[in-house]
């Protein structure tokens, strides 16, 4: 990866294409974690790569810190900037009947959750109601099962801040659902 980055810094277009191909899964995963409303995933990925190529001349390789960490941090910052610019939190829109049933299950009988797509719809709708940083920390920590240390490296937040944000985000999520039984 380091050799590819150096070649891109020297203007090699083939290396630039190879760099995008190699890093695209990481960037796409981070963009999807933010769930921006006004931008498609592809638009945000493009914005991340535009920022990367614009700032690539400032990148310096450091021992023990791979290029992917630098890029991931940039992707997180670009997504956060886009979400701040949206300046709004989407309202919990109309849910499908199956998602409404999932929500009712959270309020009452904890029964079985046998409709994965309805549960995912509900999770997405609830996460969209949270601030961008809350949405990010819950997605990375709980949905993607990343460690606190990984999230700290990706976002630039201290490990303590990651834990505090996760705790507060879960409280906000519980308030949205209207139950104290959610983890």
Question: Short description, anyone?
Answer:
By secondary structure, the protein is an all-alpha fold. The chain has helices at 2-9, 13-34, 41-55, 67-86, 97-107, 116-128, 132-143, 148-155, 159-177. The protein is built from nine helices and no strands.
Alpha carbon gyration radius: 19 Å
CATH architecture of the largest domain: Orthogonal Bundle
What's the order of the H and E elements? HHHHHHHHH
Residue share in helices? 55-70%
Q: What is the CATH homologous superfamily assignment of the largest domain? A: RNA polymerase sigma factor, region 2, helix turn helix motif
User: Terminal Cα separation, in Å?
Assistant: 39 Å
- In one word, what is the shape? elongated
Number of domains: 2
Low-confidence stretches: 88-92, 179-183
The secondary-structure class comes to mainly alpha
Remind me, CATH topology of the largest domain?
Rna Polymerase Sigma Factor, Chain: A
What can be said about the biggest beta sheet?
none
Mean pLDDT over the residues? 79
CATH classification, class level of the largest domain: Mainly Alpha
Per DSSP, the total helix count is 9
What's the count of strands?
Answer: 0
Task: Spell out the key features of this protein.
183 residues, mainly alpha, Rna Polymerase Sigma Factor, Chain: A, Arc Repressor Mutant, subunit A, 2 domains, 9 helices, 0% strand, elongated, disordered C terminus
């Amino acid at each position: 990866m380091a050799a590819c980055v150096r070649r891109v810094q020297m203007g090699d277009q083939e290396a630039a294409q190879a760099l995008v191909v190699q890093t695209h899964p990481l960037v796409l995963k981070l963009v999807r974690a933010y769930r921006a409303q006004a931008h498609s995933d592809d638009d945000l990925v493009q914005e991340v790569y535009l920022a990367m190529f614009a700032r690539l001349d400032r990148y310096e390789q450091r021992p023990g810190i791979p290029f992917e960490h630098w890029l991931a941090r940039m992707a997180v910052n670009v997504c956060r900037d886009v979400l701040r610019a949206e300046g709004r939190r989407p309202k919990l829109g109309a849910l499908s009947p199956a998602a409404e049933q999932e929500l009712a299950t959270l309020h009452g009988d904890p029964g079985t959750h046998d409709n994965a797509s309805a549960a995912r719809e509900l999770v997405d709708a609830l996460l969209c109601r949270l601030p961008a940083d809350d949405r990010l920390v819950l997605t990375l920590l709980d949905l993607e099962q990343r460690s606190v240390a990984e999230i700290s490296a990706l976002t630039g937040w201290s490990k303590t801040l990651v834990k505090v944000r996760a705790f507060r985000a879960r409280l906000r999520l519980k308030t949205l659902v209207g139950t104290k039984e959610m983890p």
